[in-house]
Amino acid sequence: EVCRDKYDAVLPLVRLLLHHHKLVPFVAAVAELDLKDTQEANTIFRGNSLATRCVDEMMKIVGKHYLKVTLKPVIDEVGYPTETSLGLLSPQWYPCLLDRHSCFSSENLRYYVDKVFREIVRSSISCPTLMCDVFYSLRHLAAKRFPNDPHVQYSAVSSFVFLRFFAVAVVSPHTFHLRPHHPDAQTSRTLTLISKAIQTLGSWGSLTKSKLSSFKETFMCEFFKTFQEEKFTESVKKFLDDVSSTESKEPSGVSEPVHLKEG
Question: Where is the region Disordered (predicted)?
Fold first, then answer.
C-alpha cells in the first residue's frame, strides 16, 4: 500500500527484519496470507509473491557461504574439468552438450548431476539455522493448508531450497559470487542442463511418467529415466527433513558473519 512497486521494499525490509531478529515470524505471516490464495498444492510457493521474494532475498543474504562451501568446488570443475571428471573421454566430448547422438556427453552430464546432487543432499549440516527456521515454518503452514496431501510439506520447502536457491545458483554462478564472470556459451549450456536436473530431482514426487513426459526434449526424458530410483527420492526426503527441522545442529565450522550494512 505504501510502495508503488512492493518489490522495491523487499531487500531493505528483509535486512531490517534480519537485524532485529524478526524475519521468521514476518515470513510466516505473509506466507500464510499467500497460502490462502493457493488453490492447488502442486502450485505452492511457485509465484513471485511478497512471501516468496522475501525468502529469496533471505537465502541470498544468509545462504551465501552455504552455497559457496556446497557448490563452488563442483561449479569450478564444470568450468575447468579435471582428468578424473573426464575419465578416458577425449576433450572434444566436453562439455555436456547433450543430444540424442552423443552418449559420451550424456555420461559427462550424469557425472556432474550426480556430484551436484550428492553435495546438496549431504549439506544439511551446513544449512544456516535461520534458513532452517524459515523452512520449518513454511513446511507446517503448508501441511495446515493442505492437510490431505502428505507431500505438500516437502514441496513447500523444495520449491525454495532446490528451485529458487541451488538450481538458480548453478545456472547463474556469477550472480551468487561462485564464479568471477559470466560463463562462456558451452559452460552455460552445461550448467543449464545440470540446473534442470537438480530442479527435477528436488521436486518432491517429480520423477514420474507424467512429469517426465512434460520435457520437450526427448533426450532429457530418456536421461531422467536413469534417476527413477527410490534412493534419489529418499535422499531428497531426508535432506528436506533435515533442513526444515528446528533441532539444534552441531557446529559445522563453515559459518561466517552476515553483513547487513553496505557502504
Answer: 241-263
Instruction: Answer for the pair 132, 248: CB distance below 8 angstroms, yes or no.
Output: no
Establish if 222 belongs to a structural domain. Answer: yes
pLDDT (tens digit, 9 = 90+) per residue, 133-188?
Answer: 999 999 999 999 999 988 899 999 999 999 999 999 999 999 888 888 888 888 88
Q: What is the mean pLDDT of residues 115-141?
A: 94
Amino acid at 197: A
Q: Which parts of the chain fold into alpha helices (H)?
A: 10-19, 23-36, 50-62, 64-79, 83-86, 103-121, 129-145, 152-160, 167-171, 185-202, 209-212, 218-224, 230-243
Q: Which pLDDT score, from 0 to 100, does residue 204 have?
A: 59
Contact 109, 190 (CB under 8 A): yes
Structurally, the chain folds into a number of domains equal to: 1
Q: Other C-beta atoms within 10 Å of 143: how many?
A: 15
DSSP code at position 183: P
177: domain range? 55-243
Note whether residue 48 is domain-resident.
no
Q: What is the DSSP letter of 166?
A: I
Distance CA 52, CA 134 (A): 11
